[in-house]
Write a structure and sequence with these properties.
Number of helices: 3
Order of helices and strands: EHEEHHE
Strand order of the largest sheet: 2-3-1-4
CATH class: Alpha Beta
Oligomer: single chain
Largest sheet: 4 strands, antiparallel
Number of domains: 1
Helix content: 25-40%
Shape: globular
Structural class: alpha+beta
Distance between the termini: 10 Å
Radius of gyration: 14 Å
Strand content: 25-35%
Number of strands: 4
């Protein structure tokens, strides 16, 4: 399983942002190999969205999508800054509390 984590500091939100953000999420969901996503908000105004992918081919399809490219090109309108982290998940374990709440890569 591959994850792509987008961490950002939001500056503003408007109708254009909301529309484009919804379109990007629909693009991700339509890609064969998309496993899900999680969102986190920090007390310092930072936020993160982690997308879960079956493999790099699925992530590459998302990365190359025109709508996703448009969103990336306009980030300065809505974000103070961002960071993207791509990782391969080698092991997932826990006490069972989060069972079913996160993709496991075995979907």
């Amino acid at each position: 399983m591959i994850t792509s984590t987008f961490t950002f500091k939001q500056l503003s939100v408007d109708g254009e942002f909301e529309s484009l953000n919804e379109r990007v999420e629909r693009v991700a969901e339509a890609i064969d190999g998309y496993l899900g996503r999680t969102r986190w908000r920090g007390v310092d105004g930072m936020s993160s969205v982690t997308y879960y992918w079956r493999d790099m081919e699925a992530l590459d399809a998302f990365r190359k999508d025109a709508t996703h490219g448009l969103a990336k090109s306009r980030y300065k309108e809505w974000y103070a800054g961002f960071r993207v982290e791509i990782a391969e998940v080698l092991h997932v374990y826990g006490d069972g509390y989060f069972e079913g709440r996160f993709p496991t890569g075995s979907e």
